[in-house]
Amino acid sequence: MTTRNSTRYVPGTAIMLDAMMDNPIVAGAAGLTLIAGGCVRMGNALVLILLMVLLLPLVGILSAIERERISPTLRPAFYCAVTAVTVFLFSLMIEGIARGSVENLGIYGPLLAVDSLVLCRTAEDSPYVTPREAFWEALGYAAVFAIIALPAALIREILGNGTLFGGFLGFGGFEALRSPFAGFIICGFALAAYRAVIVHRSNMEQRSSRSAEGGRRQ
User: Fold this and answer.
1) Are 164 and 98 in contact (CB under 8 A)?
2) Among 67, 100, 142, 193, which is 20 to 30 Å from 21 by CA?
3) Secondary structure of the chain: what % helix, strand, coil (to 5)?
């Protein structure tokens, strides 16, 4: 029998989820292939983030509702079908509003349907959460994805393409920075910087807590 996850979920502060704060790689690295391959421009990053925001809560809530109702044998096929159809429909909707925005993602748009960050909640051994908790957890993961994707896309568009939101900046950029290899390196630095901020914040909170305890003892 699965046990309930002890993580606390606070509406409005999903970005502060314990799982995200303790190990952002869980949420960030799972989507690194999409970021390294697809986020060569800010427009691409914004479209991927929007798709994540639309897709992750849907999959999380569905997996929480149907918990153990679908055979483990059928679960992978079921969720791949659900995510594929959902990505297709959302892509059509976004493409209708901003023509060419999804097409510019190339293969990385469809790959979103089978990304591990999207399907992590559907695993048989994933901790039990309520639909509400799954919703806030999904938004938290989407936020971490955005935190890594946006600076990576910004650096690669400016230095790799010599543009910003499609506007020419006066130089041609470095082609090597547009490659997935460079994307993974930039993502690694972005993750390291994010982790450093989290560790610094945790240390500050611990020092503050110790100071408060010392004051009460005196």
Assistant:
1) no
2) 67
3) 75, 5, 25
**Cα–Cα distance between 102 and 150 in angstroms, integer?**
17
DSSP state of 160: I
Rounded Cα distance between 44 and 3, Å, is: 39
CB atoms within 10 A of CB 30: 18
For residue 169, give both structure tokens: 């900046």
Residue 94 structure tokens: 């976004």
Sequence-distant (≥ 6) Cβ neighbours of residue 123 within 8 angstroms:
none
User: What tens digit of pLDDT does each residue of 139-191 get?
Assistant: 888 888 888 889 889 999 999 888 888 788 877 788 888 888 888 888 888 77
3-class secondary structure, 67: coil
How does pLDDT run across 17-60, given as a tens digit for each residue?
444 444 444 444 557 778 888 888 899 999 999 999 999 899 88
CA angle 146-150-156, nearest 5°? 145
Tokens representing 90 are 């959302």
- Which run of H or of E encompasses 168? strand 167-168
Dihedral angle sign, alpha carbons of residues 188, 191, 193, 199: negative
Q: Which two tokens stand for residue 185?
A: 């390196």
Query: Tokens at residue 77, please?
Result: 């096929």
SS3 (DSSP) at 205: helix
> pTM score > 0.90 for this model?
no
Q: Are 36 and 184 a contacting pair, CB within 8 Å? A: yes
